[in-house]
Each structure stands twice: as C-alpha cells, then as structure tokens.
Amino acid sequence: MIQEVTTSAEVDTVVSLAATIWREYFPRLITPAQIEYMLERFLSQSAIRAQMTGGTRYYLLQTESRVVGFMAVAEQKQALHISKLYVHEDARGQGLAREALHFLEIHCHRQGLDRLWLRVNMQNELAISVYKRLGFHIHETLVEDIGGGFVMDDYVMEKAIH
C-alpha cells in the first residue's frame, strides 16, 4: 500500500525510517560522516517540511503489517523526479520498488508527464540493476558538491512514459 505523507507523525516516520535505512545500507558507499550530513541536510524533519512546502510529495510504502519504506517525488516540467525511494532491509526483494514505480507511472499518465527520472550513486550497483530491470537507462553522470566537504557522484537514470 502507498499512502501520501500529510501529518507531522508521518513526517516523523519518514525521518526515523531514513535514519535506519541510511545507516544500514549506505556505509558500503559513503562515509558515516557523509551519511549523517545528508540525513540532516535532506531527511531531517525541517528539510522534509521545506521540501513538501516547495511541492515535493512524500509517500509511505507499507506492507499489511507495517511501514517499510518511503519515496519522494516532484513534478518538473514534463517529468516526475523521484528524489527518494528507500525500502527497509528486511522488506527488499518483495516487489515494493516495482509497485512504487508502477504507482508513479500511473501518476505520470494522469498528469501528462512523459518520463520518470532519478539520481543514483554510481557505486550503488544493486539499485542501478533494479532500475535497469524496471526500464530505466543511464542518461548522464553528475558530480555535485553538496557542501560540508562532500560530493555526490551520481548517474541520472530515466524512464520514458508512453
């Protein structure tokens, strides 16, 4: 089930999930210092509220028994930017990313948007392979200074919506 985040308690759920997922998954890709910096800068309660005020929509990903992930999206011109899509370790491999992307494709059709796009760390081979299986392709490479002495080395991946 996918549910839009609208309440302060739901934002708190996203913050908690982000901390758990990032600290579990990302040490193989980036330093603990960068993880903490990015959690504060992009996934703190104040950061999420500011993003939502700016038009980003957050969604909780749920199984029958609990919330196991979240995603965030924003419409940009004729595309939908997936800025976040994270699933808890014990819920990976159950088709939640596929379900989430199908939900977003339906949204694109309804809104007349022609593509989905996202950024993924160039070293994140697991996520890259999942996105490729789901119809995304690498469009370009981006290296971005995000402050604090940290850089994001990402692929921009896209999927056309027909």
Descriptive report:
With 162 residues, the chain is α+β, with helices and mostly antiparallel strands. It has a single domain, classed as 3-Layer(aba) Sandwich (Aminopeptidase). Helices cover 40% and strands 35% of the residues. The chain has five helices and seven strands; from the N terminus they run βαααβββαβαββ. The protein has a seven-stranded mixed sheet with strand order 1-2-3-4-5-7-6, with helices on both faces. Strand 6 and strand 7 form a beta hairpin. Helix 1 runs antiparallel to helix 2 and helix 2 crosses helix 3. The radius of gyration is 15 Å and the shape is globular. The model has no long low-confidence stretch (mean pLDDT 95).
- Total count of domains: 1
The largest β sheet comes out as: 7 strands, mixed
State the helicity in percent bands.
Answer: 25-40%
- Tally of DSSP β-strands: 7
CATH superfamily: Gcn5-related N-acetyltransferase (GNAT)
| Topology order in helix (H) and strand (E) letters | EHHHEEEHEHEE
Strand content: 35-45%
Mean pLDDT: 95
What is the radius of gyration computed over CA atoms, rounded to a whole number of angstroms?
A: 15 Å
- The structural class is alpha+beta
Number of helices: 5
**Uncertain ranges:** none
Largest sheet strand order: 1-2-3-4-5-7-6
CATH architecture classification name: 3-Layer(aba) Sandwich
Task: State the shape.
Answer: globular
Distance between the termini: 24 Å
